[in-house]
Amino acid sequence: MNVMDDIASSMNGSSAALTLGEGVTGILVRETNPEDVNEVSFAYGSQNDSMSIIENKDDAAPFSRSVTVPKEAFDKAVSLNVSIPFAAMFRFLNMAKDELNSTILGDEVMAVEMGTNITDLTDKISINFRQMKYKGIPSCRSWNGEGARPNWTDDGCETITEGDNITCQCSHLTFFAILMAPPNETISSSDLKSLTIITQAGCGLSMVFLGVVLFMHFLMRRTKASIATRILIHLVGAMFLLNLSFLVNNAVANLKSAVGCQIMAALMHYFMLSTFTWFAVQALHICLQLHMTGKITISRYLLKVSVISWVLPSVVVMVIGIVGKYGEQIIYTSDSDETVSMCWITDSNVHYVVNIGYYSLVFLVTFTTFIIILSWLFCLKRNKPTKVQNDKSGKSIVTIMGLCCMLGISWGFAFFAYGVLQIPAYYIFTVLNSFQGFFLFIYYYNTSHSGEEHNGVGSNSSNSSSTTSTTSTTILDKFENPYRNSPAKK
């Protein structure tokens, strides 16, 4: 590319076909008289066709691909002391993938060279793809040719789509390509802005209440906490770190540090998987308490579930990190100028298999537990007098909402959203996420106080035996078990 001016100076004719290697072809046209310089168009029908020079861009309509270099670009080249004005266009069919393994329309990369740096064109270079069959959202990108792999950017390029026709209008000369965003990763720019604001506000609000829970536990009630409460604290800690990593994710992505973004993506993924695991642990703990009537006789019970819940996600994250699937991911919108960068898993297949598969197993366990507890609460209402029902109806609602957050039921809106319901589900999830920390705070407050009233020295009794006995969860503390025979009560 850098020696095209030498080739143009040594040419005898006005144009020449160029071959730079397998899958790389080009064509060069020069103008010996600067005053005769006008716009020039290059066109071809398919990847196997040779490129042609078209004097009038209107004559390029029959071709499926065309590039038009305006007269302004030639004038700028002359003003920058290019001795012989020329334009060289190249087509690359074997360009290396970028770090994100982006999908390029037709696997075609084009480049335009004029022997000098041409920027800030008001009459822009026009790149046309006509009658193209594609899936996804096209976005015109450029690359300055630096680095071992392309680093595509949308700076200086505008994307225009009309049915099956795609036009890129760019104000500079460089490498060009049309990147395709999968349809399920593209939303409207207005929805993206709204969801971003709601999510950031929701994460901040949740972190406030989650921070209060951690403060109350470690500085005020740690010695009186039951094992059920301690499990809840592990979940609160994982969720607090997940919200924190999400809030700083975009700032790290904007630093454009590949290593920093990989570390950020791995941390956020680890805290998310840890949070999911603690959802499942909460559900299994409640099931064990219901089955064992509040007494779990498993040696080193809390230590075992803690090791599993914190170590298992780290193994998954390390494997994904070793295979190099963490990095910067671009969230595209209907407006090509509105994009958001974040550090996350760059391979959509890995995301679906690991995250959605992992959460599906957790959701199966937690949702089943949630249905069991709901049926238990309804059974309690039928067995209790009306006055007692009215007194506890408000607490039951808070308990149910706390259970939804504690068991991660609301995350199903984010992972199982599909089709026309995808955007509404995202809004529902972001709103529920805003109250996640609040309901966990209320749930923790009720749990700790209920534990004190019914099990004042529960932690001391658990230390005096080789087996671990847990005190009741909030539900077990506040309600009688309707499935327990009355003669068994003491």
List keywords for this structure.
490 residues; alpha+beta; Chondroitinase Ac, Chain A, domain 3; Rhopdopsin 7-helix transmembrane proteins; seven-stranded antiparallel sheet; six-stranded antiparallel sheet
CATH superfamily of the largest domain: Rhodopsin 7-helix transmembrane proteins
Shape: elongated
Q: Which structural category fits the helices and strands? A: alpha+beta
Tell me the CATH topology of the largest domain: Rhopdopsin 7-helix transmembrane proteins
Largest sheet: 7 strands, antiparallel
Share of helix, binned: 40-55%
N-end to C-end Cα span: 90 Å
Radius of gyration: 31 Å
* Beta-strand content estimate: 15-25%
In short:
With 490 residues, the protein is α+β, with helices and mostly antiparallel strands. The protein has 13 helices and 16 strands. The strands form three sheets. Strands 1, 2, 6, 7, 8, 10 and 13 form a seven-stranded antiparallel sheet that branches. A six-stranded antiparallel sheet has the order 4-3-5-9-12-11.
